[in-house]
Amino acid sequence: xxxxxxxxxxLKGKTTKEADNISRKMMIKNMxxxxxxxxxxxxxxxxxxQILWDxxxxxxxxxxxxxxx
Length: 69
Hints:
With about 70 residues, the chain is mainly α. The protein is about 70% helix and about 0% strand.
């Protein structure tokens, strides 16, 4: 969902910076949910957390951060 939210936010007229921030907040929310899963010893939680962190860490806005449609 966080990656989809970038496109949805842009279509709603948000700037690229706003869309990036919304997506990042969603990723943090998802990471918190996965941390709770990990505390309950859910299988695969650690792997999912690593993937989500890699996405968070690697997401960048290239170009004008104030651009919008």
